[in-house]
What we know:
Chain A is an all-alpha fold. Chain A contains 12 helices and no strands. In chain A, α3 (80-86) packs across α12, α10 (212-250) packs parallel to α11 and α11 packs antiparallel against α12 (268-296). Chain B has helices spanning 48-56, 95-107, 113-126, 142-155, 172-189, 200-206, 235-238, 242-265; strands spanning 4-17, 20-33, 37-41, 63-68, 71-72, 82-83, 161-164, 193-197, 209-213, 221-226. In chain B, the strands form 2 sheets. Chain B has a 6-stranded mixed beta sheet with strand order 6-7-8-3-9-10, with helices on both faces. Chain B has a 4-stranded antiparallel beta sheet with strand order 2-1-4-5, with helices on one face. Chain B: GO terms for molecular function: ATP binding.
Amino acid sequence: MPFEVQKMTTSPVSESVPDPVAAQAEKLLAAAQAKQIAASKRRKIADKAGNVLMPLLTIGLLLAVWEGLGQAFPGGLPSPSMVLMEAQELIFNPFYDRGGVDKGLFWHVLTSLSRVGIGFGLAAVCGVLLGSFLGTVEWARKGTDPIIQVLRTVPPLAWLPISLAALREAQPSALFVIFITSIWPIVINTMVGVRNIPQDYVNVAKVLRLTPGEYFFKIMLPAATPHIFTGLRIGVGMSWLAIVASEMLLGGVGIGFFIWDQYNSSRMSDIIVALIWVGLVGFILDRLVALLGQYVSRGTAAD
Amino acid sequence: MSKPILSLENIYVDFERDGVISQVLDNVSLSINKGEFLSIIGHSGCGKSTLLNVVAGLVPVTLGAALLENREITGPGPERAVVFQNHSLLPWMTVYENVRLAVAKLYGAKENLSQLHDRTMRNLELVKMTHAKDKRPGEISGGMKQRVGIARALSMEPKVLLLDEPFGALDALTRGHLQDTVMELHDRIKATVLMITHDVDEAVLLADRVVMMTNGPKARIGDIVEVKSPRPRDRRELLKDAHFQDCRRRIVQFLEQHDHAVSVAEPA
Lengths: 303, 268
């Protein structure tokens, strides 16, 4: 009996005596595994192709419809081929500069971006500080909450006349409009983040007797970072909205003014090119802030 | 044992919510000697965590006083370091930075950078976590997190170390390892420890005395069991130890009695 048991357990894996059933099974298994791997590879390739191909296909389709409509109704909105023809220099040479406002789109966008950089930067610093304060001090939050809720709904351009009257010049007025538009989501989100700091972290700070300054930098800011960056992302999007609109009214250099200027000289193709720039730059700004947020708050979400 | 380092004198704690007062602790008095390991056990919700929070200074007493070396406890402080139940490591800091934060806060004014570094590493070594010092809490296991939590608390060189159900969220195997670590540390650095637990074996294994609390509301100390088993203790050896088994049985009996008391009292 023990001899038989031993034989039974060893025979399937013994190498000296090839077992035809085991060999067959191994072959089948290998084939099945190869099939599995091939299928997963195909899925991955199809996935990647879909990620690239589908957007390209959609864009192509839209362009074709637009082109068709442009051909069917001449004199209306220029078709893509017309845009390509009329705005050739604008598309292919964004860096030209003939003095005054006759510049490539790069320079217009750069001017607008620098305004956003200053206005939004100020809003970020002030917004985070104010939000942290309001998130910590209960009575201050209660006192200011109704004011903030009302002010944050005021459209960017509605601030322009007031800021022009107060500041008397175009440049600071534009900065103020960006500042006042983008600060509210930063304040509100920072406040929420600070109010939601887990009691555990607060207890750690208490046991260590951290000073208010230490608490702000070591606990409050890092703990609220995900919320702060949500606010910053909304804020940067809103400031990009605000700058284009306010430049239209204020004049000078800037992508907003450029669009208005081309409208006045009925250059529709240039406007379409400028719109694409505005959209792409807005998208990049949003991604940049999101990436920065991911980098800064790495590990914070994981627990 | 010497005179008490920590004493709780006639402590009452009430919580108020929507105008309703609930009495959590009802006249609790207790003293802990220097170097003693005290376990507090009771059913969940009985107020044992509240008791620990009173000592930590995180919960104010309604009546009575908690004294550490004859001075009243009025707020939290590093001389009563807490190992929290859910580790409470700061997730944006590495393991090293979490301990370093405590070290820098307490010794930053007195010691230079290399001394602070040595102190941090020494405490990580105590819990055998130096190998993961650059990892973030999200990248290590629950047991490892709790080890770091212990290292952070020890780095404050507390007069009393407070453990708030420190192994409650861990699996049995990890829990056993950590209990051994805590026992070893207690033997080595002669720390005074107050530990909350709801695990009978854990309470008896680690403690010199096990304090049993009655069910809340109005929890009080029901009984105290003195565990005289010699140290260092080995969990397998203790299974054969009659005294250990006796302590264990008395606690289980107490808890079962009070479990019964609740189920009878509740429908009324």
